[in-house]
Specification:
Structural class: alpha/beta
Helix content: 40-55%
Radius of gyration: 23 Å
Bound molecules: zinc ion
Length: 367
Amino acid sequence: MAFPATRLRRLRRTAELRNLVAETRLTPDAFVYPLFVCPGEGVRKEVRSMPGVFNLSVDEAVKEAREVHSLGVASLILFGLPDGKDEVATGAWAQDGIVQQATRAIKREIPGLVLMGDVCLCEYMSHGHCGIVKASHAPQSLGAAARDAITAVAVRDGDEREKAIEKLAGIASRASEASYEIVNDASLELLARTSVSLAKAGIDIIAPSDMMDGRVGAIRHALDEAGYTHTPILSYAAKFASGFYGPFREAADSAPQFGDRRSYQMDGANIREAMREIEEDIEEGADMIMVKPAMPYLDVIAAARERFDLALAAYQVSGEYAMIEAAARNGWIERERVMMESLLSIRRAGASIILTYYAKDAARILS
Ligand SMILES: [Zn+2]
């Protein structure tokens, strides 16, 4: 039946009617709140690029966890800022690592709160990459090309000089790409060791975010061997190399000291490859899967929902949060409205679990 018999506006007339026919609903028990734990006592340091988000010492993290729990938020995901960093990420898997300490303290006080442990090495590595780094050498031809370009910069002027400088910059970036490698298989052992250590501390869900091939299988095997057969794995299965992670790197002090993460995180152009990544992780034993970031990849969330039957999570990342906060602070958008709309869109795309810095604020609105 068409207009005028059909009038879709009939069900939009009042808030009550709109509510009744809402297809998508948000509830706090679908939210996971990220927490950044740092050494010290009484520390509550705001992240510059993420107003309202803090680095918290263990005692403060416990307070925060209590508040999160009282708001009905289901879960916390913990990230750590260790005392020191090295080349084997000791702080990630040490028994007294910062996340392990926080886990024990929070579990003691609020046993009902589900704790997720992010498993990655970047926050604990001196170089800031998510795996073990092996140096390799730049090809000789690059050295010769660089020498020529440097000479040209020195002796030419004007346009010619500009061109030589540009060429030199190109050579430098190719050289830095060629001069190191993030080693896959050797990194798996550290990731597995980290996962067991977190499970031992009381983490309920192990969430690997490193994007090394084969990590889910390696972690499952290690957990089972250590007796943690009941500990589920939430795999950051389709994690894209993204500019939206910028503020997180400040929050977790995890920016790579050289190069970038494009050799392990996914290319934003690829949705079919994202399905393969997810499939692979399911095959290796993932119990839940995640797409990250959320807003720029809603189509990937929707495709994953369509294709796989596992619990599906999405991470509304630091840059998504920072954009909304910055615009709201400028008075350019309505903060609460955009916050709820962004969360609703992630839910509508198909994610049943949302990791978000808005967990507390959104829970307050929904209660
Ligand atoms: Zn990482």
